[in-house]
Design goal:
CATH superfamily of the largest domain: Immunoglobulins
Radius of gyration: 58 Å
Structural class: alpha+beta
Number of helices: 5
Distance between the termini: 141 Å
Number of strands: 28
Length: about 475
């Protein structure tokens, strides 16, 4: 590995032993590496400084810099600052093939200043059933090349390998999902991982010598497609799962229930028989339908029961194993009866506080009391005004009928006034019913018709008078 090369440098160049132990710099593809290489007075007189890649026990691909000057080549910049006695190196837009051992060195006797092991890894994000392609560089040609998965700090489990000068790999991966092929057009090795699953998430190496020397590191993350459903007992549920029909059109599909975390108990599968791309479970409650044109699998579960709750897979059904397409979580709850439905309690957070109800009742009572008081006051005022109006109207009528100063009779406690108009005689007659007063001091006079006079007055001082008026001619015009 690269660290072994650095240990060899420590033995060959004692000046490098005084430096800090070499460390591994790990960067993601597309990232930037910044390194500072300090040097002592002994090396200060050397004007040229190098940044080079160490491989096969020699330094090649050199980048140099003079004092107070910088050199930029491709994606690498080297700058020497004699005042700070530091060589600064910047590598931008890092690529996986940049991984390796690098040195800062001085000219003349080639005095190493600092060495690092750079590891640039590929970060790959995939969905389940996707395919991973990785290209390993041609530089490893001639060695036994492997694609392995890192386990722990030192182990790398081989999944596929290719021998020297061979063109095809000997796959050791389960279900033959992994292979390596030499591409003479690109002059590279291509690693292929098909039908990815979430458990494939991990760190992989394209390596030499059965995984002991890393060439390229790949950090793979595989994500599940998930769905969630809720249903009532005795109800039904319908689930749809999509897939790439160009890749998996001819593959049988299955609906299974997850057991013990990784295994899945198959409930129903599609068939290639006369019934077409469909199937029904033994109990008849589960049906599956595969639309190969659209790339959609539809699963229907009927007459659900509480024990149907759990985790299910839409999966590719092959002879070797199941490959999950999507993960479906189903929760079946008991159906409530009518009586239970009417007695459901309201959550505490949604119930109003008791103090709020009391305050509302008090406020409502105050408002109603004020309105009642205003209504009573209004009624009293209207009654008083009406009474005064009636009194004023009664007094005016009495004054118009009898007046003592004009010889009109003064009325007692009861009176009735009638007016009539006789257009033929031009006379106005007033008829009064009087209650006589016991006083005999002054006579009372009143205009009455002769027929209305008492024939036999009894002990009453009554005088009658007949007053005649000449008839005035009518004015028909007026």
């Amino acid at each position: 590995m690269e660290l072994r090369a650095l240990l060899l440098l420590l033995l060959c160049f004692p000046g490098l032993q005084a430096q800090a132990p070499p460390a591994e710099e790990r960067r993601r593809e597309g990232g930037t590496l910044y390194v500072q290489c300090p040097y002592t007075d002994k090396t200060y007189n050397y004007q040229w400084k190098y940044w080079c890649r160490w491989k096969d026990n020699r330094c090649y691909q050199q980048w140099t810099s003079a004092q107070y000057q910088s050199q930029t080549t491709d994606r690498i910049t080297v700058k020497d600052d004699p005042t700070a006695k530091t060589v600064s190196v910047t590598m931008t837009d890092l690529k996986a093939e940049d991984s390796g051992t690098y040195l800062c060195a001085s000219t003349s006797s080639f005095i190493p200043l600092k060495g690092i092991s750079l590891n640039v890894f590929k970060e790959v994000l995939q969905w389940e059933l996707d395919t991973l392609w990785v290209q390993c560089p041609r530089s490893i040609w001639g060695y036994s090349t492997t694609w392995c998965r890192r386990e722990g700090q030192t182990e790398c489990r081989v999944m596929a390998s290719i021998e020297s000068r061979s063109t095809r790999s000997n796959s050791r991966a389960p279900h033959d999902r992994t292979s390596m092929v030499y591409n003479d057009r690109l002059d590279t090795f291509t690693v292929t991982m098909r039908k990815l699953q979430a458990q494939d998430t991990g760190t992989y190496w394209c390596a030499l010598n059965s995984g002991h020397t890393r060439v390229i590191e790949v950090v793979l993350s595989v994500f599940k497609r998930t769905q969630q459903y809720t249903a009532k007992e005795s109800g039904n549920v319908s689930v749809q799962c999509q897939y790439k029909n160009t890749d998996y059109k001819a593959v049988s599909k299955a609906w299974c229930k997850e057991e013990a975390g990784t295994s899945c108990d198959i409930l129903v599968t599609t068939s290639s028989g006369p019934s077409g791309n469909q199937g029904t479970s033994q109990d008849g409650r589960v049906r599956i339908q595969d639309d190969t044109q659209q790339g959609i699998v539809t699963i229907t579960m009927e007459q659900l029961q509480a024990q149907d709750s759990g985790v299910y897979w839409c999966a590719l059904h092959e002879t070797s194993a199941l490959s999950r397409m999507e993960e479906v979580t189903l929760k079946v709850s008991k159906a409530l009866s009518d009586t239970e439905g009417t007695s459901q309690a309201t959550p505490l957070d949604n119930s109003p506080a008791p103090s709020s109800n009391v305050n509302t009742l008090i406020l409502l009572s105050v408002v109603l009391s004020i309105l009642l008081i205003l209504a009573l006051i209004t009624s009293v005022v209207l009654c008083v005004r009406l009474h005064r109006l009636l009194e004023r109207t009664g007094n005016q009528g009495a004054e118009d009928t009898c007046d003592n100063s004009e010889g009109t009779a003064q009325l007692g406690s009861t009176e009735r006034r009638e007016s009539s108009k006789d257009d033929s005689k031009g006379l106005n007659h007033n008829n009064l019913d009087l209650q006589s007063r016991p006083s005999l001091e002054a006579p009372l006079y009143c205009n009455i018709e002769p027929s209305q006079a008492h024939r036999k007055p009894q002990g009453e001082n009554v005088e009658y008078a007949v007053i005649a008026f000449n008839q005035f001619p009518r004015n028909d015009a007026g």
